[in-house]
Design goal:
Length: 123
């Protein structure tokens, strides 16, 4: 199983217990999503690098988590993402190294990008 798919499964399992995140559809894919009818967490690959602490057995896998609102109305989308984004950051805080959440567009929708790093075994 790829690191992206493993993270997808982990988020689906864990976020079912977090009220602000339970409604998110979690999907790991590199393709563009065209049918966004519910809040969506998109996981895409960003980078692969050596892990300084364990260069022979592990690697850093950079992923990009994009939180996408289905609303085309920017005020509604902003309100929705104002609840989802801090909850996602709180979840990531205790599990992964991550960067700041940055407001972006996903097509005509409002979204937030959160780059994060997973330390994965080479096996």
């Amino acid at each position: 199983m790829s690191v992206r798919k493993a993270v997808e499964a982990q988020l689906q399992a864990d976020w079912g217990d977090i009220p602000e995140l339970v409604a998110l559809r979690v999907i790991a894919t590199e393709r563009e999503l065209d049918d966004i009818t519910q809040p969506t967490a998109l996981i895409r690959a960003k980078s692969y690098d050596r892990t300084a602490a364990a260069p022979q057995s592990h690697r850093n896998v950079g992923l990009l988590l994009t939180l996408i609102s289905p609303y085309l109305d920017l005020d509604r989308a902003g309100d929705q993402l104002d609840a989802i984004t801090p909850a996602a950051l709180d979840y990531l805080d205790t599990r992964y190294s991550h960067e700041a959440a940055t407001a972006v567009g996903y097509g005509s929708r409002l979204a937030f990008d959160i780059p994060f790093t997973v330390i994965a075994s080479k096996e």
